[in-house]
Specification:
Elements: E1 13-17, H1 34-49, E2 52-56, H2 73-83, E3 87-90, H3 96-103, E4 110-113, H4 120-123, H5 135-157, E5 162-165, E6 190-192, H6 194-207, E7 214-218, H7 227-233, E8 239-242, H8 247-253, H9 268-281, E9 284-286, E10 290-294, E11 303-307, E12 316-320, H10 322-333, E13 337-341, H11 354-368, E14 372-375, H12 378-386, E15 395-396, H13 401-407, H14 413-419
Parallel strand pairs: 1-2, 1-5, 2-4, 3-4, 5-6, 7-8, 7-13, 8-9, 13-14, 14-15
Antiparallel strand pairs: 10-11, 10-12
């Protein structure tokens, strides 16, 4: 596989697929430019070599074609500031205007194409179907957009000499610009950008070459949304810490009384199976023993500490209790490889942030002592940033769904397209 470090972009035009799906406020100002900053090393490498960059990205989820609020024109000025040079923009991603803008592009210049998802062909999904469309009509529409997707992809590919995928956040999508386009470039002319490379290596370090003991902290509200991750991790970790609302499904499966805490009754047998499999594999599965319970889901709720298996009726567990925190912190600090996905409580409310903060601090301490730590998933990333600890852990992933699918053990189309 071609390496971006070893490739010389001098005189080359590179199509760089990035993930600039950044949040914008009502005034179309960027409120978090993390994804843009993380793509800078790739862009700067190409420019420093004497190449030119054609930026392709999506923004939001346009459903009916072009919409001003989803236009990438809103990110151009800030990208210029980040790069320290003017950035050009063309209000399309296909057609004569785009081809001319690319033809005029000189070494050292950057051109941003309009939102790729303004075209249905990017995702390969038909649009505009009537709600009562028949199965035959749906099948015909799907076939038509798949056919036109081929020419859309070819039009993107012919703009450049080289393809660079630096969009890990969309690597789990088999879209035109994230996977299909790679087939139109020779193996020596397609590669991961630095961000994509770092993301893939970080996950593989946890799943394939981890130093032991390996600990995964999995949280969130639903077991159903994380069960495939848990099942895959059981064969790869030494310790599995279950936190957040999903822990109460496990508590109830063990015969606990959980009050009004979150629970998926349909997942109780699954929870029992997970615990049985963990025991069979010798995995230390750590469940909370106590919690901070609240009489309502609110920042100003009345609270009490109680057993996870004896939450009073009408009360709900919203954070780890002190005994649970101590046990889990001890496990984390003794770990050499750590994966964290999902908060330990409703950390958005100060009254219920102690567990999540303790987990974050323990991971930071373990990292300082030589452990490798990977933080992924929107809420975990938000937490590590809230507690100003992002620079105290080994790696903070930019990928949400892509990271989760990779942890589940799935092959990501955007990764496979480059590696072959």
């Amino acid at each position: 596989m071609q390496s971006i470090d070893k490739f010389n972009f001098n005189g080359k035009k590179a199509f760089v697929r990035v993930d600039f799906n950044v949040p914008l406020n009502a005034d179309m100002q960027i409120t978090d430019d993390t994804r843009m900053r993380r793509a800078l090393p790739t862009i700067q490498k190409i420019l420093a070599d004497g190449g030119s960059v054609i930026i392709g990205s999506h923004l939001g989820r346009p459903k009916k074609g072009p919409e001003d609020k989803f236009s990438l024109k809103h990110i151009v000025a800030h990208l210029s500031e980040l790069i320290g040079a003017p950035v050009k923009f063309v209000a399309d991603s296909q057609g004569a205007e785009v081809e001319k803008a690319v033809a005029d592009l000189k070494p050292g210049e950057v051109l941003v194409l309009e939102n790729l998802r303004f075209y249905a062909e990017e995702e390969g999904k038909p649009r505009g179907l009537a709600e009562d469309a028949s199965d035959e009509e749906k099948a015909a529409a799907k076939k038509a957009v798949k056919e036109s997707q081929k020419s859309f992809t070819k039009n993107l590919a012919k703009l450049a000499d080289v393809y660079v995928n630096d969009a890990f956040g969309t690597a789990h999508r088999a879209h035109a610009s994230t996977a299909l386009i790679a087939d139109l470039f020779a193996s020596d002319d397609k590669m991961f950008g630095y961000l994509m490379q770092q993301e893939v290596e970080a996950v593989e370090k946890v799943l394939k070459t981890a130093a032991k003991p390996v600990t995964a902290i999995i949280g969130g509200s639903k077991v159903s949304s994380k069960i495939t991750i848990i099942e895959n991790l059981l064969t790869k970790v030494d310790n599995l810490l279950i936190v957040g609302g999903m822990a109460f499904t496990f508590s109830k499966a063990l015969g606990g009384h959980i009050g009004s805490s979150l629970c998926e009754d349909e997942m109780l047998e699954t929870a029992k199976t997970v615990m049985s499999k963990a025991k069979e594999l010798g995995v230390n599965i750590v469940l909370p023993t106590d919690c901070v319970a609240a009489d309502k889901f609110a920042a100003d709720a009345a609270t009490q500490i109680c057993s996870d298996k004896n939450v009073p009726e009408g009360w709900m567990g919203l954070d780890l209790g002190p005994d649970s925190i101590k046990e889990m912190v001890d496990v984390i600090k003794a770990s050499k490889t750590i994966l964290w996905n999902g908060p330990a409580g409703v950390f958005e409310f100060d009254a219920f942030q102690a567990g999540t903060k303790a987990v974050a601090l323990a991971i930071a301490e373990a990292t300082e002592n030589g452990a490798f730590s990977l933080i992924g998933g929107g809420d975990s990333v938000a937490a590590i940033n809230k507690f100003a600890l992002a620079d105290k852990v080994s790696y903070v992933s930019t990928g949400g769904g892509a990271l989760l699918e990779m942890i589940e053990g799935k092959d990501l189309p955007g990764v496979k397209a480059i590696r072959g």
